[in-house]
C-alpha cells in the first residue's frame, strides 16, 4: 500500500549544490485535502485509468487527528480507490522521503482507518480481485430486502436521466440479516460525502435503509450496484401513530444531478403515504436537499385539490390592495384545516408546509411582477416573525457582548432573566436597528432567491404550474 518514490529528476531539475545546514526546515505538514484523491470505480480496468476523475469529498482534514495536517512526509500523494460494487477500498500511498521532525510522522494507516475502517484492503492485488470475487455482494446483501419500487415512480421521475427501468428501491430493516454489514460498508461513503453526518446506530431496529439499486444486465447474471441510499428512522408518536424521519441521504457522486435523489424522495413519500404514518420529517436538511425536497412537495401540493380554495383566498387578499402601504400586513399562513389535511394526506409536516405555502402563493400570482412589492412585504413579515418567534422561544439565558480590552470573541456575559423578556432584545436595542434592518433585508433576499429557484424549477417540469 505504501511506496517510496524517488523525486523525479528531469532536465530542468539538475541537482543543485546545496549548502548543508545543521538542522532541517520546520515541517509545516500537508493538508489531507491537498494530498488525498478519492476515486470511485466499478471495474479493475478503471483503477489507475487516466480517464477516471477523482470525486470531491466533504472535508478530509476532519479525519486527521489534531489540525487536519499530515506531518513527516515529503511529496506525499494518496490515491484511494473505492470499488463501488463491493464497497472495498485501497489506498495507494507514495512519497519521496520521511523526516521525523517536531511533529513526528503521521500514522497514515490509522488516519485512513478513521474513514475506511475494515473496508480498506492492504494489498492491491487483493483489491483488484474484489471486482470479481465480490461481484454479487450487493445482490446477495439485498436478496431478503423488500422491493418498494421497481422502475418509474408515479410522480416526477420524468427527471431521471438514468433509465428508470433499471432502478429498484429496496428496503431493509437495520436489524435484518445483512443490513448491518451492508451499512458498515456504506459508512465511509457517508463520512466522505454527507456533510456533518454520523453513522446510524446499527443496533437500533427502528432504522431502515432504502437502497437505490441499479440492476444492469451483464453476461448471464445481472450486476447490482448501489447508486444511492437513505436511512430513515421510524418512531412512535403518542398515542397510536408512527412518524418517519429521513436522516441521511446520499446519491453517489457520479450519479448526482440525474434525478435520482428526486426519485428516492418520491419513493419514500409514497411509502409514508401508503403506510399512513403521522408525518415525514427530515433531519437537518442541507440547502441542496431542501431544494429538491421542496420541488417534489410543491408538485404534490399543486395536485392536491383540497388546498386550492385556501390558496385562491390568500391570493385574492394579496392582490386586492397595496399591502406594503398598510400599517399591519396580515400573516399569509394557511388555515389550520389545510395544514391538517396536507399532513394527513401527503405526510408533509407543518413547518415544511409553511415554507411551501409561500411558494404556492408566488406561483399563483399572475403576473408576478405586478405583485412583487406586496409579496416581498409578506415574506419580510414572515421572516421577521420567524426571528422574533425564535428569540421568544429561546431559554431564559442570553449572551451579550460587552466592551472589553480583551479579545472581542472571548468577552461576553451570560445573564439569566426571570421574566423572559430578553426575547425581544434584538428588536428593542435602537442602536442596532440599521444593522438589524440590513440583516433582515439580507434574509428576505435570500428567501426570495430560494422561492424563485423552486418556482422556476417547478414551472419547467410542469409548465401549467
Ligand atoms: C438529511 C441529509 O442527509 S442532508 C444531506 C444530503 N446529502 C448530501 O448532501 C450528500 C451529497 N449529495 C447527494 O447525495 C445528492 O446530491 C442529493 C441526495 C443531495 C441529491 O441527489 P441528486 O440525485 O443529485 O438530486 P437530483 O438529480 O434529483 O436533483 C439535483 C439537481 O439535478 C437536476 N437534475 C435532475 N434531473 C436531471 C437531469 N436529467 N439532467 C440534469 N440535471 C438533472 C435537478 O433539477 C436538480 O437541479 P436543481 O438543483 O437545479 O433543481
Automatic annotation (TrEMBL):
Q: What reaction gets catalysed by this protein?
A: L-lysyl-[protein] + acetyl-CoA = N(6)-acetyl-L-lysyl-[protein] + CoA + H(+)
Residue span, N-acetyltransferase domain: 213-284
Where would one find coiled-coil regions in this protein?
A: none
User: The organism sits in which domain of life?
Assistant: Eukaryota
Q: Which UniProt keywords apply?
A: Acyltransferase, Transferase
Domain annotation Histone acetyl transferase HAT1 N-terminal: ranges: 30-195
Annotated region Disordered: the residues are 1-24
- Give the InterPro entries listed for this entry: Acyl_CoA_acyltransferase, GNAT_dom, Hat1_N, Hat1_N_sf, Hist_AcTrfase_B-typ_cat-su
Similarity comment: Belongs to the HAT1 family.
Q: This chain belongs to which protein, by name?
A: Histone acetyltransferase type B catalytic subunit
- Species annotation: Camelina sativa (False flax)
Q: Which gene encodes it?
A: LOC104733554
